[in-house]
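re: ur question from yesterday

yeah so i grabbed the chain u mentioned. its 168 aa long if i counted rite. heres the sequnce exactly as i have it in my notes:
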Amino acid sequence: NSDGDYLTYEFSGNKRMSNRWSLAASFSVMKSWFNGNEYPEAQSRNTIRTNQYPVAPNDLISTDGKGRFVFTVWSAKVLGTVELPYQMRLAATVREQSGIPYGRTFDATLNYGTVRVLAEPMGTYRQRNVVIADLRLEKVFSLAGPLQASGALDVFNLMDANAEERVS
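ran it thru and got these structure tokens back, copy pasting raw so excuse formatting
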């Protein structure tokens, strides 16, 4: 019984475009009972155990008793748009997500080889939060008849975020 389980709560709100502006925001929190390799998007690959699933008693140390790592991650996002004069539009997006959780490990040499063991539960520590801010300025041009064209200038990662992605 070593399947992963995930419980997510998400809250969101939306202010539709009126009075020349709109806003959308969301927040989600996810609690995970995680084995290692079945959910690579949210957590870096399992580098603790040799196998994905627990196969030895040492694989159960600092887990939920079934060999699953228990931790919580969260993310928040705000998107806003403002219509400016001269058929221009300014849009901004700010996203923040919790850093990847980890627990310290140690390598133990046993009678069957060297194994990596969690010294404390996953989620005892966490990498820095990741904050990304993007801006877009868009201008609409009227062409012949009902035709229109638009040009956009995007600035990605405005604050030059460069959070860690792995623990070694």
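noticed a couple things. Residues 55 and 161 are 39 Å apart (CA to CA). also Confidence is low (pLDDT under 50) at residues 39-44.
anyway ttyl
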